[in-house]
């Protein structure tokens, strides 16, 4: 059976150029990058070259790029590392819809004595930046973490607006942004976003699993989390995976170079997908902002369609899997559990609604034919569940 892969926000397949780079260096007998002999020096130069590529792609300096084992570790280093430099008891702030990697690191810091403010979002997932800045000023927040784009519903936050609002409110927290889902899909502009710290993950853009990037701009004050051999400018100890880092460098460089054309194409497909589902599923609702943005700023990720239906949830996902469709109910870490999505709860859905989102995330290999087939299969599968459950498929709950 042909598989229809619609889970690129969870992970996107290794792209051929990254695979070629990985194989090239796996077979090259690289040594430990910290060794002074020839094989070690070769490994070091492979990492240096990858750092150059990533820095150029992200518009930062090479010395600002720290490689980690993935997005989660990069986020942990950013948040724990920055918090360790704050005075004890300094407040931290974030939003209620961040990825678990952000929320759980911050909640651990809260348990360690830093008050934590989790800012609400509106029914489409948007943060009110003026309110956020005022709250940060009142609290004297020392660290603020707001993701560029949400992995479940694709909402894009107004980080440039947040930066301006923070300035107006006269507060200067260290700003971290989880840019894992933005990479290769939105323009990356850390300066405009006012972010000193930003985190990325290679496997979301066709790089290998197991390579993350922390950008720490302008000598952002950070305490290392993993200590030992002093690798990665002392920020992240542990022998680097040179071949995987090289492949990640290639994937990130290409994702950024191809972004504009890719985003335009994939957004066209995502719009067709939503139009097909809206026409074929009674009462279906698009979660997150509409495709038609009110201003020039992108309101949503171009590749993400999360649909609320009466039939959504684990049973629908399992049925779709049997039909060859691979999708998700939320973040990959949470799918497989029956927990309601914290993101959908934050939009104001009740517990039942927060279990019924169907996240369909498109990628570079998605075709118009795939989208047509997907629409057909989702509509048929939902209809058969309606028959089985004897439900009417009426309008769904929540705001
Ligand atoms: N942040 C966001 C928004 C994500 O979507 C993910 C992956 O699901 C992560 C962080 C974690 O990245 P990684 O899987 O590389 O640890």
Instruction: Please name the CATH topology of the largest domain.
Output: Aspartate Aminotransferase, domain 2
Q: Report the structural category.
A: alpha/beta
Low-confidence stretches: 391-399
Q: Mean pLDDT score, rounded?
A: 94
What percentage of amino acids are in beta strands? 5-15%
Throw out a few tags for this protein.
399 residues, alpha/beta, Aspartate Aminotransferase, domain 1, Aspartate Aminotransferase, domain 2, 2 domains, seven-stranded mixed beta sheet, three-stranded antiparallel beta sheet, 11 helices, 40% helix, disordered C terminus, binds pyridoxal-5'-phosphate, metal ion binding
How would you concisely characterize the structure shown here?
This protein is of the alpha/beta class and 399 residues long. 40% of the residues lie in helices and 12% in strands. Strands 2-8-7-6-5-3-4 form a 7-stranded mixed beta sheet, sandwiched between helices.
